C-alpha cells in the first residue's frame, strides 16, 4: 500500500505540472488529486521538492525503462527523448525550481543507466572505490550537460547528444 500511495502522489504531481506552473502547485492540490489528506503527503515526503525529485525519477525511470537490460545508448536515448517530448514539464521546472533540485532529480536516472551498462568487473576494494568515483564524476558531468542541453532549448538532436556522451563514456571504460 505504501508504494502505491507514493506512486499516486508522484503521478498526480506530474499531471499537475503539465497544467500549472510549479509555484501554483500546492500540497493541498496534490493531495486532493489523489484523494488523500495533507498528512498523508507528509507521511511520504518532507516537502514538495522531495516529491518533485521522486516524481521526476519515477516518471523518467518508467518512461525510459532504465531497469531494462539495454545498452547505455538506448537507455539514454529513451531518457532524452522523454525529456524533449515533455518540454512543458521540464521547462516549467527549470523556470520555477533551483537547478540543484533538477540535478538531484536527474542524477539517479543517469546513475542507473551507468550502473546497468558501464560497470566493469572490479578486482579489489580499491579498484571498486576508484570505479565508483569515476562513475559518480561522469554522472555529474552528464547530468550538467543534459541540463545545459535543455536550457539551450534542445539545440542539438538527441542523436548528437548521445554521440557526444557515448564518446566520453567509451573513452573512460575502454
Verbal overview:
With 174 residues, this protein is mainly α. The protein has one domain (48-173). The protein contains nine helices and no strands. It has helices at 2-19, 27-34, 38-44, 48-64, 72-85, 87-96, 99-117, 125-151, 158-173. Helix 1 packs across helix 2 (27-34), helix 5 (72-85) packs antiparallel against helix 9 and helix 7 (99-117) packs across helix 8 (125-151). The chain is globular and about 50 Å long. The N and C termini lie far apart (44 Å).
Rg over CA atoms, rounded to whole Å, is 17 Å
Largest beta sheet, briefly? none
User: In total, how many domains does the architecture comprise?
Assistant: 1
Structural class: mainly alpha
Element-level helix/strand string? HHHHHHHHH
Q: Classify the beta-strand content into a percent band.
A: under 5%
Count the helices. How many?
A: 9
How many DSSP-defined strands? 0
Shape: globular
Name the helicity range.
Answer: over 70%
- What is the distance, rounded to the nearest whole angstrom, between the alpha carbons of the first and last residues? 44 Å
Overall pLDDT confidence: 85
In short:
With 174 residues, the chain is mainly alpha-helical. It has helices at 2-19, 27-34, 38-44, 48-64, 72-85, 87-96, 99-117, 125-151, 158-173. The chain has one domain (48-173).
